[in-house]
From TrEMBL:
UniProt subcellular location: Cell membrane
Endpoints of the signal sequence: none
Membrane topology classification: Multi-pass membrane protein
Name of the molecule in the record: EamA family transporter
Domain EamA: 5-137, 153-286
Transmembrane segments: 36-55, 67-88, 94-115, 122-141, 153-171, 183-204, 216-235, 247-266, 272-289
UniProt KW keywords: Cell membrane, Membrane, Transmembrane, Transmembrane helix
CC per GO annotation: plasma membrane
UniProt cross-references to InterPro entries, sorted A to Z: Diverse_Substrate_Transporter, EamA_dom, EmrE-like
Length: 299
């Protein structure tokens, strides 16, 4: 069971790391809100033939839980990405990476507040190690750069994004008893509807960039890889080991994003990147050892 969860979550973070690279490559080829909107249009079109029959069969449960499903789709699928792209217009990638590392901490706090789920001391140490790895990556190997961070409006709204995705992760615990096809289709439709006002605003403000060939290719990747496949795997991983343990894997995203930038964009590989990867993987392994041991004792 745990091996499947690890495979699902590692694959998810690799796809989300690729999404970071796609975001860099998309600049000038498709505007942010248009990218968010089109990725969910494509995601719904991909999921319709897969989930339409199960959605109809699960409709009574979907209808009775529509507020929860709409909230999950809004927080995890749309608002996080909208704020993430917007924050990068006001703050640096370093700041965003550091702030994103707070997601596992917020998940742990939210799980304690709402469900009284406790963590083990070694899990806290593991979280600290993964954050150190993210900090090392974000600062390009010079932790002294973190002292020079200039916090601004972008950082403030990024904290809202962190809260949104943390609540989404914790909220998956309340997922109704419907099949994954119905669940994903329902959340994707909610995400599409909620993204519509943002793209309308972008068009009205004259900031829209209609995708060119590269823009369409990157949009397809974000829809299929970073939206549909990765979200299914993340949900499955959460089901298997819980949000506290699954959320810690999120700190692999900037690490994988950096490594993929080396492979795809041609950036130079640095020794600190290997050390950062070792810190994050070591932190996850330590936290997982403690978390899985505690879970076995509770059974």
């Amino acid at each position: 069971m745990h091996r499947a969860a690890y495979l699902f979550l590692l694959s998810t973070m690799l796809l989300w790391g690729g999404n970071s690279v796609a975001g860099k490559l998309a600049v000038g080829h498709v505007s942010p809100m248009t990218l968010v909107f089109l990725r969910w249009v494509m995601a719904v079109l991909i999921l319709l033939p897969i989930g339409w029959r199960t959605l109809r069969e699960d409709w009574p449960e979907v209808r009775s839980n529509w507020k929860l499903l709409a909230g999950l789709g809004a927080c995890g699928f749309t608002i996080f990405n909208v704020i993430f792209y917007t924050a990068l217009n006001y703050t640096t990638a370093i700041n965003v990476s550091i702030e994103q590392a707070a997601i596992p901490i917020v998940i742990i706090l939210a799980n304690f507040m709402f469900f009284r789920l406790r963590v083990q001391p070694l899990q806290i140490v593991g979280v600290a190690l993964t954050i150190a790895g993210v900090a090392l990556t974000a600062s390009h190997g010079d932790l002294g750069q973190l002292l020079k961070l200039d916090l601004n409006y972008g950082d403030a709204i990024m904290l809202v994004a962190v809260l949104c995705y943390s609540l989404y992760s914790v909220g998956l615990r309340l997922k109704p008893a419907i099949r994954w096809q119905s669940f994903m289709l329902a959340l994707s439709i909610a995400a599409l509807l909620i993204s519509l006002p943002f793209v309308i605003w972008e068009i009205a403000s004259g900031n829209v960039i209609v995708p060119d060939a590269r823009g369409w290719a990157l949009t397809l990747y974000t829809a299929l890889g970073a939206s549909v496949v990765s979200q299914v795997l993340y949900i499955k991983g959460n089901e298997l080991i819980g949000a506290n343990r699954a959320g810690l894997f999120i700190n692999l995203v900037p690490i994988f994003g950096t490594l993929l930038s080396v492979l795809i964009v041609g950036e130079q590989f640095q020794p600190y990147q290997a050390f950062a990867l070792a810190l994050v993987l070591g932190g996850i392994a330590l936290a997982e050892y403690s978390g899985s041991k505690a879970a076995l004792q509770m059974q």
